[in-house]
Amino acid sequence: MFGGKTIPSVMVSVIFLLFWVVVYPSSLEAQRRGGGPGGRDDMSRRMEEMKKRQKKQEEQQFEKLCDYLELDKTQKKEACKLFKKMQKETEKLAVDTRKGKIDPIEANYKIIDTYKVYREKFRALLNQEQKIKYEKTRETGLKETGKK
After folding, report:
1. Residues 103-139: pLDDT tens digits?
2. How far apart are CA 54 and CA 42, in angstroms?
3. Domain range annotation of the chain
4. Model's pTM, two decimal places?
5. Rounded distance, CA 57 to CA 148, Å?
6. Distance between CA 132 and CA 3 in Å, rounded?
7. Nearest 5°: CA angle at 36, between 31 and 38?
8. How many CB atoms lie within 10 A of CB 122?
């Protein structure tokens, strides 16, 4: 009765049954939740975390630059306004690009223009000594100035 071809077919049936009872329901639940590790929700969460880290790093670099240039309170207040405005504009362009509202190449040109305007306005806040220090950081970065 269990000779030859019967045992493998019983094993296949048991494996198939285990799949439907154990694995398939959990995979359906993971799909319903948006996926487990590596799913849509997980990917969205990781993207948000990455954006937050990047934003924090940009803010830390900005603070280091302000400290290195020794901005006074008025300069720093105006510089912060410019920086936040630039961040908001570039973030909006990135979101619009992801949503398909704007062509990525066009978005890149707009981001470059946004940075140029920001740098010009930021530079206008500086005195001559600060401008020289700022140009040095533009050439070598803060790491070469001793401010890491």
Report:
1. 889 988 998 999 999 999 999 999 999 999 998 888 8
2. 18
3. 40-145
4. 0.64
5. 12
6. 90
7. 110
8. 20
